[in-house]
Amino acid sequence: IERHQQERPPHWTTLEAPLKVAEAVAAQLTGHDTVVIDCLTLLATNVLLTLPEDCTQADSDAAILAEIDALLTVQAASSARWLIVSNEVGLGVVPAFKLGRLFQDSLGRANQRVARAADSVVLMVAGLPWRLKPA
Fold first, then answer.
1. Alpha helices in the chain (DSSP H)
2. Which end of the chain has the least Cβ crowding within 10 Å, N or C?
3. Which residues of the chain have a pLDDT value below 70?
4. Residue 4 is a catalytic residue
């Protein structure tokens, strides 16, 4: 983390919020022309870990998508350029454990929702950009 912070330009503002990221960004948005959310994968993890062990896929989806919808609401009302980073975790094996399956499916739904709202979507594979939207 320290190395990444040192590599950033000095005028960048770093905001770390494990949950309710939309509220945190909205409170700091004034004066910024670019917002980088890095990353939805960690946000989904943080949300999922607040849920009870016996939660269902519907519970996981609802909690994670509520965070995503809040972010997209702030983004839509903003004039800043937004860059949202996430991981694609649905290309591998189905996780053996319930928590992994909840995470994989909910993050996939979150990524779909963000991709629908985005003007541009790029999947990075082996360091190469694969432009998904616009095609």
1. 2-7, 21-28, 40-48, 57-76, 98-117
2. C
3. none
4. yes
Q: Residue 98: is it exposed, middle or buried by C-beta count within 10 angstroms (0-12/13-18/19+)?
A: middle
Q: Tell me whether strands 128-133 and 121-125 are parallel, antiparallel or unpaired.
A: antiparallel
The CA-CA-CA angle for residues 93, 50, 78, to 5°, reads 90
- DSSP of 94-122, one letter per residue? PPSSHHHHHHHHHHHHHHHHHHHH-S-EE
Alpha-carbon distance of 50 to 8, in angstroms, equals: 31
pTM over 0.90: yes
Phi and psi based region of residue 96 (left: phi greater than 0; alpha: psi -120 to 50; beta: remaining): alpha
The pLDDT of residue 65: 98
Kindly state the tokens that stand for 44.
């989904």
**Rounded-to-integer distance, Cα 86 and Cα 122, Å:** 10
Q: Which of 2, 4, 93, 97 is catalytic?
A: 4
What CA–CA distance (Å, rounded) separates 25 from 128? Answer: 29
Cis peptide preceding 39, ω within 30 of 0: yes
